[in-house]
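We emphasize that the prediction below concerns an isolated chain of 358 residues; any contacts that depend on oligomerization or on bound cofactors are therefore not represented. The input was used exactly as deposited, without trimming of termini.
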Amino acid sequence: MNKNFSRQNIIHIVCWAVVICFPLLFYVSGDAFSWGDRFNRFVRSLGGPLSYMLVFYVNYVWLVPRYLFRKHYKTFFLANIAVVIIGLGVMLGWWNLITAISPEVLPSGGRPPKGRPWPVFHATLMLILIVGLSVAVRMSQRWQQLEQDKKEAEQSRTRAELRNLRNQLNPHFLLNTLNNIYALIAFDPDKAQTAVGELSKMLRHMLYDNQQNFVPLYKEVEFIKNYIELMKIRVTDSVKIITDIDVDAEDSTPIAPLIFISLIENAFKHGISQNGSGTISIAIGNDNGLIKCHITNSNHPKQANDKSGSGIGLEQVKQRLALMYPNNHEWHYGVSEDGTTYFSTLTLNSNDSQVRNS
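Result of the prediction step, given as a token string:
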């Protein structure tokens, strides 16, 4: 705000300096007057800029925001008639004052030559144009401010929605994971203990990295690997888990945290049959900023008595993609024609500046 205010001040100063010094352009070296006389003529010409500044800033600071923006048009019109008259008075008064102080500069005691009266019409027209200029400048600034306020409000809404989604996602993810560990305790306490260790690694990522809009890809991949290892502890040897994660160990490409985890959860939830068999394939890669997650799994829809989640995960994915990757993602998912396989392919474009500046 201070930067914009300073920039506006500089623009005003420069513009008025140009207006005030403009008459100097007509004082050429061949002029018959001495430099002292030229200075006197320049001082006499300041009446115009002074009246322009008066009319401009009375409108800019007071009349336009107080009356025009509030749709008090009649008051605004009448007030400007008074302001223009005052501006004419300032212009004429300055002319007479400087002429009285230094009458030798112009013939006939510094008054306009006979037959050339003081240009009231021209001066009035200029002051009216100054009023219009003031209105245009003020309305332009108001429009820019409204646009900025609108943008800031939209960004605040987006940040609030993202915080809300993250706050929902953490308990949702934790609930599913604890259900998995609970299932292990009954038949394999050692595996359950190992699972708690894996869970602690993931919670560290969720507590520290999930609070940011974007995290480096290698951290997110590490989190996913820990989750897959945790799920391997729970499932039986009849479940075939295939992973193909082709991401460099130091790949810092920005990615929204936990954006893939709901898809992977979904694969484990629906990819294992009641008798403990199934196939789950997870592939993640980065091709010059295009991050792709391709998942296929055996299609075993969740039973009604399965309480391993409330089904909000995929809906959260849709909402987060709309907020964080608008027009920068592709997501294709569905069931194969024979109904035996479910697939989900999500591609994120992290090269777009809109994504990186979110």
